[in-house]
């Protein structure tokens, strides 16, 4: 049996591919080893994931945000080895999950636009270029956290249109101190900021919201995608909730820039599952 994980900032999707091809699923919260203690991941695996699994796992393919460093990959591996003692385990960056799921074996540009943002140039097998992802404080243009950050800042400074400001106040009756505490003192501020992207989506008929999303995507293409050689002629693919729900605007921005956007999916787990089914066949033949 193969266990596949796609772990983002907000949630982790798990899939099990059984020997007869049957697929089952599970879900836990997201985990980023750069900003969360490894004990939190261990607790999620033990208390949430394991009760949902009823299989003898032979191989694990874990794709996660924050898994760009060897240190973080080793942290994840140590936890998984504790619970799956006989399994073959591979830990990869979530960008490779996007590339495998979106591009398959074709060359292209794979992008993540969810709570956070990232991109890479993929040659059909490996990631060959990656514009540095700076996270929600210094980068992540166009992401849910970036959109939420702009919206909340404009709300606190009363730079929102009056009607939209009133809608926001009724929906989120936070005072300034509460918001600043959630951003600067409480854990997972990017998740908090990203949650406001739903409000933006629900008010896209407001010119402010449409222009904000357009500007975020415009900056994402400029600061990330256009830096890859041949970007104008390559297919550009996206995964992530923000790319999915704002796909009309995303395609419009790309079209205005003469760029080619192909696949847009909410999450890559279905594509990853298809990608790894061939590995199950190899295991079964041994």
Question: Brief description of this entry?
Answer:
This protein is α/β, with parallel strands linked by helices and 286 residues long.
Describe this protein's structure:
The strands form two sheets. This protein has a five-stranded mixed sheet. The protein has a five-stranded mixed sheet with strand order 8-7-6-9-10, with helices on both faces. The chain contains 13 helices and ten strands. It has 286 residues and is an alpha/beta fold. Strand 7 and strand 8 (127-129) form a beta hairpin. The mean pLDDT is 87. It is globular and about 60 Å long. It has a domain at 2-99 and 268-284: ATPase, nucleotide binding domain (Nucleotidyltransferase, domain 5).
Question: What are the SSEs and their pairings?
Answer:
Elements: E1 2-7, E2 11-17, E3 23-29, H1 38-49, E4 59-64, H2 70-83, E5 88-93, H3 94-103, E6 108-113, E7 117-122, E8 127-129, H4 135-138, H5 144-156, H6 162-171, H7 176-184, H8 189-194, H9 197-202, H10 207-223, E9 235-239, H11 241-245, H12 247-256, E10 260-265, H13 269-284
Parallel strand pairs: 1-4, 4-5, 6-9, 9-10
Antiparallel strand pairs: 1-2, 2-3, 6-7, 7-8
């Amino acid at each position: 049996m193969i266990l596949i994980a796609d772990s983002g900032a907000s949630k982790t999707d798990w899939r099990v591919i059984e020997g007869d091809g049957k697929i089952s699923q599970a879900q836990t919260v997201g985990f980023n080893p750069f900003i969360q203690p490894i004990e939190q991941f261990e607790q999620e695996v033990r208390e949430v994931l394991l009760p949902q699994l009823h299989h003898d796992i032979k191989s694990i393919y874990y794709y996660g945000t924050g898994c760009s460093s060897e240190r973080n990959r080793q942290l994840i591996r140590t936890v998984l080895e504790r619970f799956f003692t006989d399994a073959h385990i591979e830990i990869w960056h979530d960008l490779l999950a996007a590339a495998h799921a979106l591009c398959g074996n074709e060359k292209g540009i794979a992008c993540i636009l969810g709570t956070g943002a990232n991109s890479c140039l993929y040659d059909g097998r490996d990631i060959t270029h990656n514009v540095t992802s700076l996270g929600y404080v210094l980068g992540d243009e166009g992401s849910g956290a970036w959109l939420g950050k702009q919206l909340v800042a404009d709300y606190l400074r009363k730079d929102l249109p009056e009607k939209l400001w009133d809608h926001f106040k009724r929906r989120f009756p936070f005072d300034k101190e509460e918001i600043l505490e959630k951003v600067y003192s409480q854990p997972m501020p990017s998740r908090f900021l990203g949650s406001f992207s739903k409000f933006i989506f629900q008010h896209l008929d407001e010119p402010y919201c449409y222009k904000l999303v357009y500007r975020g995507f415009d900056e994402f293409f400029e600061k990330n995608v256009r830096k890859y050689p041949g970007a104008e002629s390559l297919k550009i693919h996206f995964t992530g909730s923000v790319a999915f729900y704002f796909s009309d605007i995303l395609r419009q921005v790309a079209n205005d820039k003469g760029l080619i956007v192909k696949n847009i999916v909410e999450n890559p787990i279905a594509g990853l599952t298809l990608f790894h089914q061939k590995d199950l066949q190899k295991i079964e033949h041994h």
